[in-house]
Amino acid sequence: MDILATPTIFYQQLFLIWLASIEILIGLYVFLNNRRSIVHRSFFALISGVALWIIGVGLLYLTHSFIYDKLVFLGAFLFVIGLVIFARTFPYNRPIKKKFYLVFIPWIILYLFLPFNLFIKDIVISQAGLVQAILGP
Question: The pTM is what?
Answer without folding.
Answer: 0.79
